Amino acid sequence: MVRLILAAPAGVSVSSAGKKPEKGKRGYATIAGTVFRDPGFAFPGASIVLQPDTAGGTSVKVKRMKAVSDNRGEFAFRVPAAPMRYQLIASAQGYVAEERTVTISGEERQDIYFTLKAGKEGSQ
């Protein structure tokens, strides 16, 4: 009886890179960024809301999400990699809210920056 054993040479890894995701499984995109306060300092504790931009049409069902910026003013959302537009709103008590629109077209990362200025608007 003859046994055939196949092994990859040392230093060679077997990867599934370049393969399509399994049926029913989708990849993800990342929408991340930083919130600053005027004159350019990181803004920890700012509220960021992400919601589908219905004016651009929706290709997948996505719920509204909320995040709070960390000590460096950073935040991140993980969303489906389907083509879609999102609306992001950054706000904080005593600062004027800012809004941005982001378009996702696949497995990618989009970086967004906000600079909040002191004003009369409160947080949302």
Structure in words:
- It is elongated, with a radius of gyration of 21 Å.
- The strands form two sheets. Strands 1, 2, 5, 7 and 9 form a five-stranded mixed β-sheet that branches.
- By secondary structure, it is an all-beta fold.
- The protein is built from no helices and nine strands.
- The model is unreliable at 12-19 (pLDDT under 50).
- The chain has a single domain, classed as Immunoglobulin-like (Sandwich), CATH 2.60.40.10.
- It is 0% helix and 45% strand.
- The protein has strands spanning 28-37, 41-42, 47-52, 65-68, 74-80, 84-91, 95-96, 98-104, 109-118.
- The N and C termini lie far apart (73 Å).
Topology overview:
Elements: E1 28-37, E2 41-42, E3 47-52, E4 65-68, E5 74-80, E6 84-91, E7 95-96, E8 98-104, E9 109-118
Tell me, briefly, the overall form.
elongated
| CATH domain class | Mainly Beta
* Uncertain ranges: 12-19
Spell the H/E element sequence.
Answer: EEEEEEEEE
Number of strands: 9
Please give the radius of gyration in angstroms: 21 Å
Task: Characterize the main sheet.
Answer: 5 strands, mixed
Tell me roughly what share of residues is in helical segments. under 10%
End-to-end distance: 73 Å
How many helices? The count is: 0
Mean pLDDT: 83
Structure keywords:
124 residues; Immunoglobulin-like; five-stranded mixed sheet; 0% helix; elongated
